[in-house]
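Fill in residues.
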């Protein structure tokens, strides 16, 4: 990745260092986000590593580095090599929710098999009240999507009366997603504050993305999370971003090149999710 050396005033250095400490992120991530916002670069762009169909078929080797992922977005979700947990990308930090329920902020540079991120800049904000289920939340968000044919990123913040998540355990190489999901641990939390990270994809994208709403959760204290199975809340704040530029990066080596990806994995994906 290119390096850029610049001279900035001491006052900006202090602001940058304070922001890095406050958000527990890196100067690279913050500067990239600031420049992207200033130049309106990638405001409606999603960046994806590999495809959902490949993941369902057991292609779970790392394909792109975490450093490159964060250079293309600060908000999103995915998984880790050999399905070792659920990925939540929030404010430029990658969190790993493992099968034992622990959460780790990953600051090392590692390889990622599947993820979708955007440079989150909401086009609109709204409130959702009295949601008794995940289905309720999805129905409340639906009217704010202007098309069934575009992609969307949604950030949902608030206190959840009930949160039900799961996290897949690490599997042996080549294990298909449906088989790994059969033994996934589930977690239930009550009265927990946190954030839902969501990507909504159109139905026609099922060969490379996960159709419909795909929610991952991370608690405010960053100690709990996972793929969301259900939730309820009295009041939530939602930001929504329209994504009409979709950049998919395919693995250049490994089992992706040999796996039969022509099969329809829609049913297995629905069961696993």
């Amino acid at each position: 990745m290119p390096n850029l050396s610049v001279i900035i005033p001491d006052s900006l250095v202090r602001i940058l260092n304070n922001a890095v400490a406050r958000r527990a992120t890196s100067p690279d991530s913050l500067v990239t986000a600031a420049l992207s916002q200033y130049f309106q670069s990638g405001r409606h762009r999603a960046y994806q590593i590999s495809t959902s169909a490949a993941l369902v078929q057991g292609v779970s080797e790392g394909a792109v580095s975490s450093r490159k992922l964060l250079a293309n977005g600060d908000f999103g979700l995915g998984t880790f090599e050999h399905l070792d947990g659920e990925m939540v990308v929030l404010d430029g930090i990658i969190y790993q929710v493992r099968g034992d329920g622990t959460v780790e902020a990953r600051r090392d540079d590692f390889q990622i098999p599947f993820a979708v991120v955007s440079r989150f800049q909401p086009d609109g904000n709204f409130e959702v009240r009295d949601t008794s289920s995940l289905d309720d939340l999805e129905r409340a968000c639906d009217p704010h999507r202007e098309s069934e044919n575009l992609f969307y990123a949604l950030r949902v913040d608030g206190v959840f009366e009930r949160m039900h998540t799961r996290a897949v355990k690490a599997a042996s190489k080549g294990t298909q997603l449906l088989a790994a999901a059969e033994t996934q641990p589930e977690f239930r939390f009550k009265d927990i504050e946190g954030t839902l990270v969501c990507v909504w994809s159109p139905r026609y994208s099922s060969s490379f993305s996960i159709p419909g709403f795909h929610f991952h959760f991370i608690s405010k204290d960053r100690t709990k999370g996972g793929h969301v199975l259900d939730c309820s809340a009295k009041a939530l704040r939602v930001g929504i971003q329209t994504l009409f530029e979709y950049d998919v990066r395919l693995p250049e080596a490994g089992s992706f090149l040999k796996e039969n990806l022509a099969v329809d994995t829609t049913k297995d994906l629905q069961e696993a999710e």
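The first strand starts at residue 45 and ends at 49.
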